[in-house]
Request: fold
Amino acid sequence: MLCAGITAFSPLVRNGAGPGKKVGIVGLGGIGHFGVLFAKALGAETWAISRTHAKEADSMKLGADGFIATADKDWNEPHRMTFDLIVNTANSSEGFDLGKYLSLLDVHGKWISVGLPEGAGQEVKSNMFMENGCLIGASHLGSRKEMLRMLQLAVDKKVEPWVEEISISEKGCAEAGKFFLPKIRKEKRKN
Reply:
């Protein structure tokens, strides 16, 4: 919680997540799962937004009220101008249509990025803001005061992180390697 947790918590509280607000969390990894947990604990209507339906069941177990898969045709249409806040925790911007995401925001809704994807990122055009006057920002970690508030909320609402445990063994190392080796190989090819 002291890293990924506060990274998700700070933009939520700084931007008014709570009862009567509809919050979207883009990406359901290390930071995103905390985004869902904390948005829900703060009392917001919480939606998980991911590329495919692969993490839909997990998002519901985390407490999400709804799920949007951006691989679905016209995925944004039923949700246009309905979100007050979207926190983007995604670690990739490949195939990311920022205009469609911004169309989800209500008038003066906020898009806050906390993920650090590789590459050039998203292209931002003025016309993306015209329909709803949405605002774009970013956040990086949080203050000591926010950290204490987050930990108290975790105690009060029984918020617990999801962790994946891998045994320290030859089999466990091979399992972990399946996740890390492709990233390491990709980095070596760049250099």
Observations:
- The chain has one domain: 4-157.
- The longest strand covers residues 105-113.
- The chain has seven helices and six strands.
